């Protein structure tokens, strides 16, 4: 009865409406065909022939299905599946279409991979190496540093190889030309595709290694970035304090000239620098910095109200709270404070 | 026989048969075959879209029933609306037949 079920599947699959409707129709047609086959068997046909005759009398499944669908409506998914099968059958005949598409995809992939590698070599690796030269990747002798050494060595080799891009490209073109010229085989298109696919795979391996060499050392270095070496920390703090000093001088000058817009802008920048000082682990000075910030906030309000006297008072309080931080940083760094 | 002619008359035949008694699909097909001495060579599959169309129009109703054979079959019964439509169709059919016969008699001397 497989043949009967297949026939009924074909007839009913395009009928719209609920599943129960299709089941009813299927059952009804099935009963009809079983009756017809039984009658043909009674007339002396074999079981197989009787069913074949009953199906032939009933009509082609596409035609019967289409007439039923015209009555009950077309099922969208069935229509789509039919169209897809039709398209597949049509395009399978055009083998060249598939092989051309595959070739185009592989060539596109190769181009993308080459671009990625060249971008990494010309832009990312120099950035990474600058970062490494500044000592951010750490210099301990653990297994981590062994990996970092490998990463740097890999990057150097890759960069060296890419310096010969022109020769590599010419070599590739030469090999391809040789292949097209000499190879005579009915599987030539598949061989071409396989060669390009292998090349694409090889370049993908290079990209994966390059990505690992660029990212893993940075991830491992995150603790170093969070807590930079003391001498670097001191440089950073010194830079911040110097900047704050300069901006305070500028602010006082702006107040004398009653340039309120510049004063407001400078106060904003001082706020940012104080915030950064907070972040730079000056735990013992947190209280002073908080007080300084409060006075700076008051100074900001005085600027908005253009209240010169209050502003000068608040700046004086700010300097008083901020002075221990300033002195400690300057003393630690043994750097002369800028003259005021 | 010209199946195009049959297409237009199939609903008339179905209603006419069901007006006599309730029948299931195969029974209708077999009765048409028998009563016409096999004159109609039609695809049996085209019976069901017609039955379902008549049912959708409210001229017949179908019900699953289990009779003596023990098999469940979908029996169709004619409705009052179906009977009225049948009368109208019979009248039209008779008029058409008479008109066609008159033309044939006049030009070919046969009916």
Structure write-up:
- The complex is a heterodimer of chains A (340) and B (111).
- By secondary structure, chain A is mainly alpha-helical.
- Chain A folds into 3 domains: 2-93, no CATH class; 96-225, no CATH class; 230-333, Four Helix Bundle (Hemerythrin (Met), subunit A).
- In chain A, 84% of the residues lie in helices and 0% in strands.
- Chain A has helices spanning 2-12, 19-42, 47-58, 61-72, 76-93, 95-133, 143-162, 165-182, 188-220, 222-226, 230-256, 260-279, 286-304, 308-333.
- In chain A, α6 packs across α7 (143-162).
- The longest helix of chain A has 39 residues, at 95-133.
- The model of chain A is unreliable at 335-340 (pLDDT under 50).
- Chain B has 111 residues and is α+β, with helices and mostly antiparallel strands.
- Chain B has one domain: Orthogonal Bundle (Arc Repressor Mutant, subunit A), CATH 1.10.10.10.
- Chain B has a 3-stranded antiparallel beta sheet.
- In chain B, α1 crosses α4.
- Chain B is globular and about 55 Å long.
- Chain B starts with a helix and ends with a helix.
- The interface between A and B is medium-sized, with 21 and 18 residues.
Structure characteristics:
A: 340 residues, Four Helix Bundle (Hemerythrin (Met), subunit A), B: 111 residues, three-stranded antiparallel sheet
SSE arrangement:
The complex is a heterodimer of chains A (340) and B (111).
Chain A lengths: L1 H11 L6 H24 L4 H12 L2 H12 L3 H18 L1 H39 L9 H20 L2 H18 L5 H33 L1 H5 L3 H27 L3 H20 L6 H19 L3 H26 L7
Helix pairs in contact in A: 1-2, 1-4, 2-3, 6-7, 6-9, 7-9, 11-12, 11-14, 12-13, 13-14
Chain B lengths: L2 H18 L2 E2 H11 L11 H10 L3 E7 L5 E7 L1 H29 L3
Antiparallel strand pairs in B: 1-3, 2-3
Helix pairs in contact in B: 1-4
Quickly count the helices of chain B. 4
Query: What is the overall shape of chain B?
Result: globular
- Could you describe the largest sheet of chain A, including whether it forms a barrel? none
Tell me the structural class of chain B: alpha+beta
Count structural domains of chain A.
Answer: 3
Binned strand content of chain B: 5-15%
Could you tell me the CATH topology label of chain B: Arc Repressor Mutant, subunit A
Kindly report the name of the CATH homologous superfamily of chain B.
Winged helix-like DNA-binding domain superfamily/Winged helix DNA-binding domain
Can you count the beta strands of chain B? 3
What is the CA-atom radius of gyration of chain B, in angstroms? 16 Å
Instruction: Give the number of domains of chain B.
Output: 1
User: Alpha-carbon distance between the termini of chain A?
Assistant: 103 Å
- CATH class of chain B, named Mainly Alpha
Using the 3D structure, state the CATH architecture of chain B.
Orthogonal Bundle
The N- and C-terminal alpha carbons of chain B lie at a distance of 16 Å
Radius of gyration of chain A: 40 Å
């Amino acid at each position: 009865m497989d043949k009967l079920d297949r026939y009924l599947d074909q007839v009913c699959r395009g009928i719209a409406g609920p599943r129960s409707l299709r089941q009813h129709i299927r059952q009804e047609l099935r009963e009809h065909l079983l009756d017809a086959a039984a009658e043909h068997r009674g007339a002396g046909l074999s079981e197989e022939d009787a069913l074949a005759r009953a199906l032939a009398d009933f009509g082609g499944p596409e035609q019967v299905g289409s007439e039923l669908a015209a009555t009950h409506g077309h099922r969208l998914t069935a229509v789509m599946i039919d169209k897809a099968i039709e398209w597949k059958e049509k395009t399978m005949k055009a083998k060249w279409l598939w092989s051309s598409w595959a070739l185009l995809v592989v060539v596109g992939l190769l181009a993308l991979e080459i671009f990625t590698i060249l971008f990494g070599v010309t832009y990312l690796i120099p950035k990474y190496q600058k970062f490494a030269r500044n000592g951010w990747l750490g210099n301990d002798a653990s297994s981590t540093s062994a990996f970092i050494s490998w990463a740097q060595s890999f990057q150097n080799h890759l960069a060296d190889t890419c310096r010969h891009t022109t020769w590599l490209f010419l070599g590739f073109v030469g090999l391809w030309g040789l292949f097209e010229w000499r190879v005579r085989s009915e599987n030539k298109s598949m061989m071409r595709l396989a060669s390009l696919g292998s090349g694409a795979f090889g370049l993908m391996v290079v990209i994966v290694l390059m990505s690992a060499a660029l990212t893993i050392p940075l991830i491992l270095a995150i603790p170093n970035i969070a807590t930079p070496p003391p001498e670097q920390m001191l440089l950073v703090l010194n830079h911040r304090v110097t900047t704050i000093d300069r901006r305070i001088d500028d602010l006082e000058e702006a107040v004398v000239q009653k340039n309120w817009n510049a004063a407001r802008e400078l106060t904003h920048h001082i706020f940012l620098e104080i915030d950064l000082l907070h972040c730079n682990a000056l735990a013992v000075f947190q209280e002073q910095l908080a007080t300084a910030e409060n006075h700076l906030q008051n100074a900001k309000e005085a600027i908005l109200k253009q209240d010169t006297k209050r502003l000068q008072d608040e700046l004086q309080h700010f300097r008083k709270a901020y002075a221990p931080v300033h002195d400690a940083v300057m003393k630690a760094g043994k750097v002369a404070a800028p003259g005021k | 026989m010209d199946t195009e002619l049959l297409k237009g008359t199939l609903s008339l035949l179905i209603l006419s048969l069901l007006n006599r008694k309730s029948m299931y699909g195969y029974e209708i097909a077999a009765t048409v075959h028998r009563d016409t001495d096999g004159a109609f060579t039609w695809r049996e599959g085209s019976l069901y879209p017609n039955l379902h169309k008549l049912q959708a129009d409210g001229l017949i109703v179908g019900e699953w029933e289990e009779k003596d054979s023990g098999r469940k079959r979908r029996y169709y019964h004619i409705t009052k609306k179906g009977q009225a439509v049948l009368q109208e169709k019979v009248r039209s059919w008779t008029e058409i037949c008479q008109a066609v016969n008159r033309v044939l008699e006049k030009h070919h001397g046969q009916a």
